[in-house]
Amino acid sequence: xxxxxxxxxxxxxxxxxxxxxxxxxxxxxxxxxxxxxxxxxxxxxxxxxxxxxxxxxxxxxxxxxxxxxxxxxxxxxxxxxxxxxxxxxxxxxxxxxxxxxxxxxxxxxxxxxxxxxxxxxxxxxxxxxxxxxxxxxxxxxxxxxxxxxxxxxxxxxxxxxxxxxxxxxxxxxxxxxxxxxxxxxxxxxxxxxxxxxxxxxxxxxxxxxxxxxxxxxxxxxxxxxxxxxxxxxxxxxxxxxxxxxxxxxxxxxxxxxxxxxxxxxxxxxxxxxxxxxxxxxxxxxxxxxxxxxxxxxxxxxxxxxxxxxxxxxxxxxxxxxxxxxxxxxxxxxxxxxxxxxxxxxxxxxxxxxxxxxxxxxxxxxxxxxxxxxxxxxxxxxxxxxxxxxxxxxxxxxxxxxxxxxxxxxxxxxxxxxxxxxxxxxxxxxxxxxxxxxxxxxxxxxxxxxxxxxxxxxxxxxxxxxxxxxxxxxxxxxxxxxxxxxxxxxxxxxxxxxxxxxxxxxxxxxxxxxxxxxxxxxxxxxxxxxxxxxxxxxxxxxxxxxxxxxxxxxxxxxxxxxxxxxxxxxxxxxxxxxxxxxxxxxxxxxxxxxxxxxxxxxxxxxxxxxxxxxxxxxxxxxxxxxxxxxxxxxxxxxxxxxxxxxxxxxxxxxxxxxxxxxxxxxxxxxxxxxxxxxxxxxxxxxxxxxxxxxxxxxxxxxxxxxxxxxxxxxxxxxxxxxxxxxxxxxxxxxxxxxxx
Length: 739
Prior knowledge:
By secondary structure, the protein is α+β, with helices and mostly antiparallel strands. 63% of the residues lie in helices and 7% in strands. The longest helix has 35 residues, at 511-545.
């Protein structure tokens, strides 16, 4: 592989006009496709296999036009101090608002508070329920605007009005955070390379890659039912790996120049060596993202595949466009150790010949491997302790900042009707196979009334055929509490007994039950997903490093960093530690998608650092250095680049912590702290300590396995003969075509 990529790098360097034209054409084509594609709303959301989804599907069949999974909104009214919602003026204002709400094009029904018994006992709070024909993720912006406008008219009438429910749910804007991340990345790259031009290449190519990827997703969004969250994930991951991969190759190019090679030769060797690491690092990210399909949540699968496609584009750009741009730059890209004149170039170094920081650190670790290893493992182990108390759930309006209307509506409803009122359960009774459907409906309602944590059970509401009914159950506790989750399981257990007695099926659904089922599904899928991703990557790394212990060490180190990161997330978002510093207003369960999302994203990025750092060690070892010296050499050439890449990623992810959305804030914090743990403790401390302790045994591979594995030559052993052959054949690009 190194030989092929070497030729590709030289070809791209020499034929840079052609390569640049191809990528500009692809970007233009994707942009035109995105601009001309029909507008697509948010993707549909379904959770196959869960009881809540089965109940939704049953309601669609038995209650045509009900839109069981349609969006809902609760417009909550509070009377001025000393007044009641039943006063004539206030009542007239509410009734006018209800009429206005019913005019929406996607509205199926609006429940009047005065006819639907939706006024609190003390008369100070009332609410109107609005039902839409599509889900909250598919709702048009015009419907949200009409909802807000109606609420404002009621405020103008003297009432306090807040809006809750999923009708106002929307993808949070992250543009400003991405800009902040790119700005910090630019500063880090300038410091790393000592050149504005060299620093600009990774940013430029990453933006081009993300532009092509996101534009392609936008062009296909309507046909493939891709939502805005898909492009958000693709842009975040694409930006991260795009900068990393280009950074690796530009850094290696400058190192080759420092060894006295000609620029075309240096570009070829940079792509042949660092490019090989980029290919396999990209493969691990693709495996991690495509592996999300094992969760069997269609939306999550589409997001993973789309993001994987963006990563593949980033790899191709790094292998072709970067050497082409290096060809355009010519002598303006300086060898390692030299800076541009603008940034102080030409000045003599303060201490000539002094080892760099990476060399000094690696030498220290090689001398004290046991102490460094114990300190790193104990530190991460301590950080991972809170993960034992991990509670999973999906955020509701109660986790929103107090400045939002959703949170204020949630609090008003809790004050007026009790905390469980914010998360009612819908019980669906399928009595099609029962001899007495009415008796079955009555028994279900009576049995649920006898359960703990139940405030209200409404009478059964059957369909026209009389074979299916819905029952609304209001718990005592809030929707995200463990008590409410226990109640859902208790109703389902009671339903199993009822089914044996009456042949009627009992299903629990609604947004609260759906959240519980999604959390359970994601929790059940975590171990299979982890086994799939780590297992495939382990096999891939065996091929890369031709070792059994190095990939095993890489996988174990990753697991340690992820557990530590989850522990930090639990401590901050579930326990409330450092809540003032991180601006966490409401503690609660950790978002159920967080562990599996963190595993996928962080695993890919962690393997980037592992592959790039350890391949330099492997390269030095193959070329004759001792095992200990190979560790030092790997850090000499790779520590600065890996550090820069990690700082950039931490900056990008930390930018998301400024979001008002608790879910986005949690993702930003979790990914940032995970990258910090993995890059600076696992890869920079534990990895060299373990390799120093193992010595030559780190690179051991059974002979039978060595013969069976393909030789991909990531370390570039075959480049010496390839360079000679290319030097004799100035038109070496023809040989690449034949290959």
